[in-house]
Amino acid sequence: VLFLHGGASTQFMQVPMNLLNEKEIAAYADTGVWSSKAIKEAKLFGNVDVVCTSKEAGYNFIPNDFAVPNDAKYFHITTNNTIYGTQWQKIPKVSIPMVADMSSDILSRQLDFNSFDLIYAGAQKNMGAAGVNLVVVNKNILGKVRRTIPTIMDYRNHIKEGSMLNTPPVFAVYVSMLTLRWLKNMGGVAAIEKVNNQKAELLYNEIDNNPLFTGTVAKDDRSKMNVCFGISDSEKEEKFLEFTKQHNIVGLKGHRVAGGFRASLYNSLPLSSVQVLVDVIKDFAKKFC
Predict the structure, then answer these.
(1) Following CA atoms 176, 180, 182, 183 in sequence, which dihedral angle do they give, to the nearest 10 degrees?
(2) Do 130 and 96 lie in a common domain?
């Protein structure tokens, strides 16, 4: 377990740098902006086989009909997609090393973490402050590339020095420690998963039953961290944002790439806050439907 500088974007290139030789293949699932950025970086170090993509559908679902080649060096997924609001609800079983970007849903739900050979996650969603990156790596998959890896980019050096190869981002690591203590006192991942499920169910139920609003992604693939939704009358979009602002709710505007609305339900957000949003949505529909 490593605490490294930089966000997940650094790992987009550090993963293939450590795992992929120039003429070898890495398999990637393309499920959103962040996975596409990871694919772009991996192509600098070797060959990339994009085994599945939902790009043509606006990334509104998680593909489930694909095959991962057994000769690929690893299979990379982004477990949660913040911009479009999709999430891998079932982690694929593969015969090659599994790599996952868990930046936006790390520690939000129980998973078989032993099924992964490398996990990376920027801390700023569920673990603490921006500036530190969690990397959990199986040492057995390292040391197999032929290239010379810069000292600071070689996972083996960070493992040897216990994340102290250079001065770590101490404040960000400290905040992560406080956040992990809070999570432990809450009852751990199992307890927070129950709360996260309640939050997501509460909001999605209102969206599905409200005549003005609609979900934007396949129901089976809905994220429990980032709820993306739209409004049936586009002329009411700005009016809804202004209405929520009047009720002290901010940050609902969707990402510029996806549009619509997005409510992020990360671990720190209490169920009561989601109830406030649901009540405001109901109130808006009564006034403007």
Answers:
(1) 140
(2) yes
Instruction: Based on the residue annotation, tell me whether 101 is a catalytic residue of this protein.
Output: yes
136/202 same-domain check:
no
Amino acid present at 52: C
164 φ, ψ (degrees, to nearest 5): -120, 30
Q: Which amino acid is it at 9? A: S
Catalytic residue among 30, 34, 88, 221: 34
Q: Could you tell me the CA-to-CA distances from 74 to 17, 97, 280 in Å, in that order?
A: 12, 5, 45
pLDDT at 288 over 90: no
Count CB-CB contacts under 10 A for residue 77. 24
Q: Is the pTM of this model over 0.85?
A: yes
User: What's the CA gap between 103 and 105, in Å, rounded?
Assistant: 6
User: 196 with 177, same domain?
Assistant: no
DSSP assigned state of 173:
H
Active site residue 71: no
Strands 213-215 and 226-231: what pairing? antiparallel
Number of domains present in the structure of the chain: 2
| Catalytic residue (one of 30, 73, 125, 224) | 125
Question: Distance between CA 143 and CA 17 in Å, rounded?
Answer: 11
Distance CA 254, CA 228 (A): 7
CATH number of the domain bearing residue 164: 3.40.640.10
User: pLDDT digits over 5-43, tens only?
Assistant: 988 999 999 999 999 999 999 999 999 999 999 999 999
Long-range contacts of 242-247 (CB under 8 A, 24+ apart): 243/280, 243/284, 244/277, 244/280, 244/284, 247/276, 247/280
Task: Of 110, 126, 153, 174, give the one whose Cα is nearest residue 19.
Answer: 153
**How many angstroms separate the CA atoms of 240 and 284, rounded?**
7
Q: Does residue 20 sit in the same domain as residue 152?
A: yes
Q: Of the residues 30, 73, 88, 101, which is catalytic?
A: 101
